Structures are given as structure tokens and as C-alpha cells.
Amino acid sequence: MPIPRAAAPDLTLGFLAEGYDFVRERCAQYGSDAFEARLMGTKTVFCVGEDAAQMFYEPGRFTRRGALPTFALKLLQDEGSVATLDGEAHRVRKALFMSFMAPERIDPLARASADGLRERLATWHDGAALHDILREVLCRAACEWVGVPATEDELEAYTHETSAMIDEAGSFGPANWIARVRRNRAEARLRDLVAAARSGESPFFEGSPAAAVVAHRGADGAPLDEAVCAVELLNLIRPIVAVARFVTFAALALHRHPGHAAAIRAAEGGAARRFVEEVRRTTPFFPVVAGRVRTPFTWRERDFAQGEMVVLDLYGTDRDPRLYADPARFDPDRHLGRTPTPFDLVPQGGGDHFTGHRCAGEWLTIAIMQSLVEVLAHASWRVPEQDLTVDLRKMPALPKSGLVLADVAPVR
User: Per its Swiss-Prot or TrEMBL entry, what cofactor is needed (predicted)?
Assistant: First the structure.
């Protein structure tokens, strides 16, 4: 079936108005898993589903360069990051990031995150929002794990700066500009640390990801310049802080489906991991991913030329009824005995972790989520009356209240 075209001249306003549901609902209207329209004046093919993900993540087929709007690029990745590279340059840089993702390297971060949350639960003040506390806990754990030294004031600054980058990644205008200023401040501190390391000082402990970034040489054999080192160090810290969103939705799921907490506490055959996977599937995290064609190809009877824009709906793929029966229902047991393919569970992208643009930190995200979900399942807490509305027009989304907890005790 040929890919249908939207009648409207440009769907940018529709995308902003409808948010996470935009691509999936439009595809349903057209009776297709893809449609063509203009986005910000650019001819774009929007698509959803496992087959679309397989098309999108074919190695070497797309580049991220020129695909992400500047207002998002400057907050989420910035120039010179691994996400902006292709070919051998990308392979070599991605290998550096994947070297941090071995279980023996991830586990200490997951444990530190869990310990940090337990400490905060023990001193909880009623009225505190879980999402805010999680960001503080995860920023501290991230800086320690990456190997970035920070005073208490600097940790507070990194928390506010990375939070602004995440919160405003889908916005434009003054709020986005302020978040960019905050990112620039964080990068400036990190550049100073990189310069100190290269001048013979030792701000980064041996064997840390930070030390590895400073020592890394690219595909051309040259070390990364100080600005790119700072970008990549921040791109290690920021995504860890972003896991706070997933864990907030996990806590909301524990509140709404309390029966799952008992299975997690009992450590019943992978209950925590299944719960985490279902939270990842249902959480409005990354809405879409965009790419420009590098190598021309044909799909759905359409020829895709070099430079054309394609947008894959990640949120919609994870809620595709062809993949998940009754996809709106929260059901961790749907993952029982099921191994995801690289293209049917894509909250952090699809394809291969090592050779493609799938999020390098996905395994780290799962480990942190599982450790924190176990802490929350063993704790005692209450959700008082509050506004838990999730506005799917806001990208990234979050319960409006941030999930305020009361009567908190670290162990039930």
C-alpha cells in the first residue's frame, strides 16, 4: 500500500497540540503505519510499528545530523556528541560509551542510587515530590559514578541544570533559552575539569568514565577537544538524572496497581524486571526519533532520497496493538517468557546498541529502575490527594504534581 499524504500543508501545529499521540492517531486515521506531511516546512514521512522501526534502524541508513531541531539538540546532545556522528567515527565513540555498560560497572551505580533513595525516604518531609527527590539522588549518584568531583553547591547546580535540559527539551522560546544557558554553565565547569586533567592534575579517579572520556581517541587517532569532552561528560550525567521520570511513573504504577509490590518484595521470578519493562513500555518518555536519509532505499512502495526526513513514533510503537494486546492496560506479565526484539520495545530507541544509535544507557536505565522500584516496593508510603494528570501534549510528560508522597517509611 502506498504511503498516504496528509491534506494539510503543514502539521507542525498539530504535532505540538497532540503531542505523544500525534503520529499513532494520524496513522490510525489513514489506515496505514506511515504517512507523509510537512513538519516545520520540511517534507517528512511519519511511521510507527515494528516494521517501521526495522526500516528506520537499518545500519547506515539514517543520520541524526540535521534531523533534531536546534532547540532540542542543544539541550539533549549538543554539537560533537556521539549522537551526531556517523560511520567509523560513531562506531569508535559508541564503543567508548558501551564500555561503561558492563554489569560490573552498572551495578555500583544501581546500588548507590538505591542507597541514596533509602536515605531520603528515612528523612522524608510530607509534601515533597518524589520526582524532585529522585533527580537529586540520581544526580549525586551519576556524578560519583562518572567520576566528576562536585561540592554540595555544585551538585545542586548540576541537578537544576540537567533537570532544565530534560524539562525543556521539547519546548522553544524563553524557557528553552534559559535551559541552554544552564547547560552552558554545566559544560563550562566540566571543561575546566578536563583542562585540569590534561594539565597534569587528577580531578578524575583512575578507571572512571570521566578519565576514559578524557583519554579517548577518535577514529582519526586524535583526542577529543575539551569542549567535546565536556559535552560527553554531561551526556553521561544528564540521562541518569532523566531516569527519575521513569521511576516516578513506576511509583505511580505501584500506587495504582498495589498487587505488584508484593510480588516484587517476594522476589518472585523476575517480577521486578517485568514490572520495569512494562513501566518503560507505557511511560511517555521519548515521543519520537528523527533521522535524515544517508543511503537511498525503498520502503512501502516509496523511494527515499538522500536527505529526506523520517520520524519514527517510539511511544506509539510501544503501544501498538499489533504487538501488545490491549496496549493501554498495565500488565507486567505480558513480558513473562517474552524476549523483546530490537524493534518492538523501543522506549529508548531500537536497533543494535553497539553499531546503531540505540541509547547506550538503556541497560543502565533498567538496572537503576529495578533497584529503585525494589526500594519503593519495600517502603511504606501514601499518595495524598493531588493532581496526577499526565498531559501528553507536554514532551517529556510527567504527573502534574511530580507525585507527592506522605507517611513515608523506608521499610514496611
Answer: heme
